[in-house]
Design brief:
Elements lengths: L6 E12 L6 E12 L3 E5 L6 H8 L7 E6 L2 E2 L5 H11 E4 L11 H11 L6 H10 L15 H13 L5 E5 L7 H18 L2 E5 L3 H4 L4 E6 L2 E7 L3 H16 L1
Parallel strand pairs: 3-8, 3-9, 6-7, 7-8
Antiparallel strand pairs: 1-2, 1-4, 4-5, 9-10
The structure holds adenosine-5'-diphosphate (ADP) and magnesium ion.
Length: about 250
Amino acid sequence: MITGEDAVLRLEQVHRSYGTGPEAVHALQGVDVAFARGTFTAVMGPSGSGKSTLLQCGAGLDRPDRGRVVLDGTELGGLTETRLTVLRRERLGFVFQAFNLVGSLTAEQNVGLPLRLAGRRPDRDEVRRALTQVGLGGRAGHLPSQLSGGQQQRVAVARALIARPRVLFADEPTGALDSSSSRDVLALLRSLVDQEGQSTVMVTHDPVAAAHADRVLFLADGRLVGDLAAPTAQQVAELMTGLEAERAA
Ligand code: ADP
Ligand code: MG
């Protein structure tokens, strides 16, 4: 049981629907979960089960219809759009499946971008340190097109880390990568947790990726239906197969 004290993020009875009336899609239907500080959590579930919506609500990119999201003691629902934007910038990092780097900017410029957007001049050493941390100290001047998919995703991780986020969110960060690049990115996320105590929440389809986490949550139809500690890839795969079968039945 994670108490309020050691949870870096809490969702309390979070509901989120899209549309109204009979056409409405209930993406989250009362999700209650706490994420322990300094740990790595994977979120799994069938396609359309609400994984991305959970991440977006947790990261303040989307607002629940009902329920509360508490990040490090701050209730996101109580913030104005402006304050929420500042909090996202200063306390949260987000990594997407499609990297989302700016193609005309070098690795270094991409990593410094969140600081520029926050009105700060990026400190060169700070940016270089972030690139070194993801194993790309020698690629600072490269454009995204001059980097492999795995390297681009590591630049995206450095960019997410530059503001020293309380929580790093990743939505299928290895979804567009080959297995060798996936391993690099997962090893990087794992080492950030182990060495820097980086609290991390990652959505994935892949049981092998999920097995890098300390804990795996399973969603089905917008509800939490499973919670596994210290998962093995095989345990995760078996639970997923069970969920898919239940859904097909
Ligand atoms: P997952 O990431 O698990 O595949 P999502 O959280 O993206 O699932 O979506 C959950 C459900 O909500 C799906 O049925 C999806 O079609 C629906 N949904 C998500 N975002 C929107 C949106 N912006 N407008 C309408 N429906 C949406
Ligand atoms: Mg998704």
